[in-house]
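Exercise 7. Given the components listed, write out the predicted structure of the assembled complex. Treat all entries as one system.
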Amino acid sequence: MENERELCEKLASRIYELDAKVYKASGSVLGRTLSGSQEHNIENLVILIMSNPQGHLLRSQMALIGNMARSIRDKKVRHDLLVEYNEILEQITKLPKSFGSIDIVDKDLAELNSSLLNHKFREKDHLVICISRSHGSAGTDIGFALSESLRINYYDEDVLNQILTRRETAKSGAGKKVSDFSKYHGLPKKDALFFRQSDLICELAQKEDMIVMGRCADVILTGRHIPHISIYITAPMGVRVRRMMELKNLDLKQALNMVRKMDHRHQEYYHAYTGRRWGEAINYDLCINSACYGIEESVELIERLINRQAKTNHHKKETNEN
Amino acid sequence: MENERELCEKLASRIYELDAKVYKASGSVLGRTLSGSQEHNIENLVILIMSNPQGHLLRSQMALIGNMARSIRDKKVRHDLLVEYNEILEQITKLPKSFGSIDIVDKDLAELNSSLLNHKFREKDHLVICISRSHGSAGTDIGFALSESLRINYYDEDVLNQILTRRETAKSGAGKKVSDFSKYHGLPKKDALFFRQSDLICELAQKEDMIVMGRCADVILTGRHIPHISIYITAPMGVRVRRMMELKNLDLKQALNMVRKMDHRHQEYYHAYTGRRWGEAINYDLCINSACYGIEESVELIERLINRQAKTNHHKKETNEN
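Answer.
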């Protein structure tokens, strides 16, 4: 413990001295970050360092000194002090987190490395991307463009339903008309369709790389433990309404009503089948405001994400799981 | 109109023929995508193409044919048919969107190119990144690491309050103790602090590149028309609770209570000062599930986003706004 205490005191002194130098060089009217007696400040810093070196109070103190250091006009002095600042930061980062009462057993868990995207997929898993989107956000365009760019299959409600219909037709004989494919264990028609679509999504996800639009696919796949990436695409109401006015040749009121109605329908559908709130960031791996990126750049953004994924998945030799 | 009609008929025929070839080569038991009479199918396709070439029904038909084409076993045949498929898709994309009743005046608006991130910032604007985060999601770690990596200033609640306190001290004379800096036009203490912090955030955002954590900074800056990027960082409840157990040496119940309490406090604060729902994807430019990426990769993901931004901002010569 003596050694740790000494190490902390040394670091605390370095921080205290850095603050003094930065204050002198920046000539800030606000005074030093660490005002008051030297003894008192160093003791405080030692406590912060020992009790929780990654804690936000120590970080805030360092941030204040760093911010002030960056404002120093003299290039050489600024450089030297920032070098010292970075060295101290690095020392803090290297401190064992088990100082004081804290005992981190699982460093990966603490740094969120344990549930990373590229640990999600095993060798035999396919790249399955679930895209939810609000009406008018161009989410559909982004999904379709992404499927073309990645050369993987694209499934939306229409495509899924056509497959279900054609299977029914095939089953009931070539000549006959479509029978009612919306039967499923005696459930109401709407629910029957949902469960047939769900089965189909899971079946497809287990045999091919694919993009699936909506249909609560992310929640369905999670329930069946099938790995996937979930993305939500939206844009501010104003942007979506103006976009629908352009695309569908509607006036403001018509477009507004349409977007509201469709959003509401999505919300209800998602909530009915998942119990979750549609559009909450916590339900997805990534949420994109398409108004910030446009269609093309949104596709690129997702691809940059997937590339790492695709690499892990398809070029196993390159990966060395630790 | 004759020419347009002819063009559409030609495309419709190509789609119909492609479907026939793909069906033959794939040997699907489900039959052709376009079943029924040739005349009827082509007429349908012509209507889809003429009325709304970017519409989802035409896209779904094409997706079905494309999905089937990708399943063809013979490499050469698959290649040739996918080339034909891509050519047709390209033709569709090139069609004037003003066919039929639709008259798109603003193509940029339709493709969401008008409100892109890199149009947000003008030459004199600083790179301001607002980060909101749920408790335990490592959002603070990501924000701090990002500020160090980008070498820009970092402001969280503590840093902002320390600056406010030190200003008050400086104003009231070097020797005197801190006066109550939470006065602001006679408002209650909590609100006074919020408005002082808000003023400070806006002041800083106008003179330096910076990262600001929480404090509803995104909404405050939007209200004052100061360009910024808004990011929300979260992770599933289970991951955050387990992380807090590790970091703070808590048991499950303690950690759960803490995360819930802090989330609730964040929600209340955000809602009270913005009227919005905290954590809804629509309020941010990008939402990241830190459990998918970890701290380091989240920083990289944001940097990839910002780099484009930084380029637009700092290397004006490279950019040629159109």
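Discussion: The radius of gyration of chain A is 28 Å. Chain A touches chain B through 88 residues (CB under 8 Å).
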